[in-house]
Amino acid sequence: MTQIGSVIDGKYEILTEIGRGGMSVVYLAMDKRLNKQWAVKEVRKKGVSKNDEIVVNSLMAEANLIKRLDHPAFPRIVDIIDNGQTIYIVMDYIEGESLDKIIEEHGAQSEENVIRWAMQICDALNYLHSQKPHPIIYRDMKPANLMLKPEGEYGIIKIIDFGIAREFKDKNLADTTVLGTRGYASPEHYAGHTDVRSDIFSLGMTMHHLLTGIDPRKGGQYASVRNWNPELSEGIEIIVDKCVQPAPENRYQNCDELLRDLYDPSKLTRDYRKKEKRKLGAFLCVLALSIVMLIGGIVMKNASDRINSNNYETLIGVADSTPYATKVEGYKQAINIYPEDLRGYTRLLDAYADNGKFSATESGEFLSLYNKYSDRFDSDSAEMCELRYKIGTMYFNYYTEADGSESDGARAKQAYHYFEENYNSTADYEHKTISDCFYWVCYFYNNFLLSSNTGRLNNDEADKGDYEMLFKEINSRIGSIQEEGPYNKLSLYSVVFNTLYMERKNMAQQGISQTQVLSLFDNVYQRAMALSPNKEQAKALQNRMRENYENDREMIETAFTTQERSGSDNG
User: Fold this and answer.
1) Cα–Cα 20 to 30 A to 552, which of 132, 234, 252, 366?
2) Phi and psi dihedrals of 318, rounded to 5?
3) Can you name the CATH fold of 285-570?
């Protein structure tokens, strides 16, 4: 066991033990060179028995799994050290409390909190289950493996301990050694045949524990959550009971199904279904009346057209000076009056930007109007290019997924279409240079880095020519965007900065020059630090780059040094 106060690899000083399990010990360590805290997972390579070999192999499998992942719910591995006797894995230190400690100290949690946490977990599991070529089955979902970071209204969930996760291969259904945690593990865990539905069972038992405070590891007959707490809703009881059905075919078959029900558990109740039937009857009556009124509406159309122009100008003018919600509704009404006038779309996007939010809800609201009337636009006009540029930067700067998570990959995936249309346009417009910069970044993500079905970073298909193309296109344009606003420039600089860091090993393996990589890395960093942004989001991007610069640059240098040594050894 590593001593407190000892220094690993000349730079990681062990401060204290923060976790222990059957497979490893986890320490809090201080990076003496970067003055940054990391979590260090240790396992000794005893080499005495088969079980020792299993522990070592499991730890290395965990490290290799996490290295492939790009999702905000999972910690990032920054170093792996093997001194022959002990393996150390250095990873992000997650500040917060595990959910089992929260239950122990505070008891059962509120239904609202549990639903919000479960939605985050669903998104993370869905990401694992959609990995290619094989889904990853987590297999040990429980409160002890879920860390809650105190950020936002509900906190952010981080999933730790991949010690027994595995890739699921249809032709080899039998698991080998460890199973899961008794009480949370599905019945098929014990038969050795887990799949994605096994994780759903464990998540259901985790939700049950969080909602009731009843620890399933202590045994006892299962009872629905409202048997323990009648104040819980009928909808959440239905969801948890479906998750933990003994037969996998009776559970949710994937996390998307579960997530849809978590969004609104009330839709599962008997009262809701009765209301829906009544709504259907009312709708049929209204439909009949609408057909009659349509005939009269056609007669009135010509008169309506004459006043629409005045209504449009009034709505635009009034909305400009109203509170956010009223402003949004005003611009939406203006768009419906004159869909061909692009001012309504632009000002609606400005309202979202001023509010600092462009989630799946806002983007869906906007696209319902944009797509509805898109066939009326002159797609190759300078005005249309400016609008597409604005849409692309909204996705690139502000987009968050339904669970509140955000990533460069997801944003690049959503923005790519709009920058691509602009890049292929022959129009000459004001923001063409920076729009083309964004296009090349999004092009690179979508064609070489992103999984086609998840929008997450897990592909490594770029070769030397692809990287050199990206460098050429960015370097040729980046000096010509000085007139752009700080946020858009910082957004571009930040994603180039992050891409160079994340792709450091692949670039080294493909023979890219270290000087070339660090030159672009330092260039975007220096340009970012020269800015004086006003928006809080822009300041956050700038601060993140400033905080990560030394560490990320060192990691880039390390990747190239390691590759050079590997090449020399092979030579």
Assistant:
1) 132
2) -70, -45
3) 1.25.40
Give Cβ neighbours of residue 539 (< 8 Å, ≥ 6 apart). Answer: 533
Distance (Å, rounded) from C-alpha 278 to C-alpha 274? 7
Q: Please give the class, per CATH, of domain 97-268.
A: mainly alpha
Backbone angles phi, psi at 459, to 5 degrees: -110, 145
Residues 6+ apart with CB under 8 A from 244: 201, 204, 205, 208, 222, 251
Measured between alpha carbons, how far is 556 from 514 in angstroms, rounded to an integer? Answer: 8
CA distances in angstroms from 536 to 39, 399, 466, 476, 495, listed in the order given: 29, 16, 34, 29, 17
What is the C-alpha radius of gyration for the chain, rounded to an integer number of angstroms? 27
Per-residue pLDDT of 334-364, as tens digits, reads: 888 888 889 889 999 998 988 888 888 889 8
Domain boundaries, the chain: 7-92, 97-268, 285-570
* pTM score, whole prediction: 0.49
Name beta bridge partners: 399: 358
pLDDT tens column, 56-95: 666 676 677 777 788 888 888 888 888 878 888 888 888 8
Q: Is the pLDDT of residue 279 over 60?
A: no
pLDDT tens sequence across 188-247: 888 778 899 999 999 999 999 999 999 998 888 899 999 999 999 999 999 999 999 999
CATH of domain 7-92: 3.30.200.20
Kindly give, in sequence order, each residue whose CB lies less than 8 Å from that of residue 501, ignoring residues fewer than 6 positions away: 521, 548, 552, 555, 556
CA distance 524 to 437: 13
